Amino acid sequence: MPEFDLIRRLQEIVSPPGTETRDVRVGIGDDAAVLEVLPGRRLVLCVDTLVEAVHFPQGTAPRALGHKALAVNLSDLAAMGADPAWFLLAMTLPADDDAWLDDFARGMAVLAAETGIALVGGDTTRGKLTVMVTAAGLVEEDGWLERNGARPGDRIVVSGVPGRAANALAALARNCEPDSGDRAALEYPMPRLALGRALRGIATACIDVSDGLAGDLGHILDQSGVGATLDLGSLPLAESLAGLADEQRWQLQLSGGDDYELCFTLPAARTDELPEIARSADVALTVIGEVREGGGLGLVRPDGAEFVLESAGYEHFGAGEGAGERT
Ligand code: ADP
Ligand code: MG
Questions:
Q1: DSSP state of 316
Q2: How far apart are CA 160 and CA 192, in angstroms?
Q3: How far is CA 239 from CA 172, 181, 247, 248, 286, in A?
Q4: Which pTM was predicted?
Q5: Ligand 1 within 6 A of 121 CB?
Q6: Do 78 and 118 meet the contact criterion of CB atoms below 8 Å apart?
Q7: Could you report the per-residue pLDDT of 138-166, keeping only the tens digit for each?
Q8: 31: Cβ below 6 Å to ligand 1?
Q9: What gap in Å lies between CA 157 and CA 245, rounded to an integer?
Q10: Residue 321, pLDDT above cutoff 70
Q11: CA of 187 to the centre of ligand 2 (A)
Q12: Could you tell me which residues come within 8 angstroms of residue 36 by beta carbon, excluding any fewer than 6 positions away?
């Protein structure tokens, strides 16, 4: 399909006439998009690139890839407490494949419609399969979340069940069929936008978990100048993980990537608000630890002993199989 037709096809599926929001003054088709930003609001911008065989296995279903390329960016907006507004799609495609493109666009279109984000432009080139999405969101002028506000005594909370995507990837690397819930977590992660919104004014720090819970929580701790203790016995469980040996499960839940859950801190006195936040955001929330003074992350087993994470956890789940290595 010629480049012009390809762009028109993408537009037809992801951004059909009539669905563009009024704040898009100029969308796809001109040299750049023109967008209306209201006074008193702040623009939140992020970009994420997915490279085949690095960020997703070769042969990933195009529909899942379309969903995920947008989802990982929406997850960054969620972590900032932002409302999704617009996105740009830069694609590098190895070959003409109309059916592939349609499925990719449909996967993206469903999530875009659900979350109210509008495709307003992009770029299309030929080469190794790579999808780059740039997403823009909006927040009130004093309403966003950052990584740097965790204070000693704050509780640490995680949404959902971390480790499921990594468990699916591990199964695929062994040529086994993953648990269906784990596979959904890997291929169709749902960005926690409602949770991010609900945490404005409550969370002292927030991050989305994309590279493993321990490492990503570490970014909150470093940027906040604090340390923390995690209680491994309180990590949320799924049936698919319950059968693993404790050490294997902790390794998976703490260092497996691709969760796209939110990890955040909040004052201990506000933990009684968590059940209502969980209900309103329709996601499980679990207190897994506490912020303390100093630095570093202590991992405490149920028997009170310390658990030592293998630093290169990610390699277990697919290096050489075409997924897992991050930059
Ligand atoms: P230019 O040469 O000025 O960069 P292009 O020919 O690359 O313009 O793109 C034409 C229009 O199509 C622009 O509005 C651009 O944003 C849009 N576009 C190109 N590729 C994509 C894509 N993959 N998804 C969405 N819009 C795209
Ligand atoms: Mg261009």
A1: G
A2: 9
A3: 18, 9, 16, 15, 16
A4: 0.92
A5: yes
A6: no
A7: 999 988 999 999 999 999 999 999 999 99
A8: yes
A9: 23
A10: no
A11: 29
A12: 22, 23, 24, 25
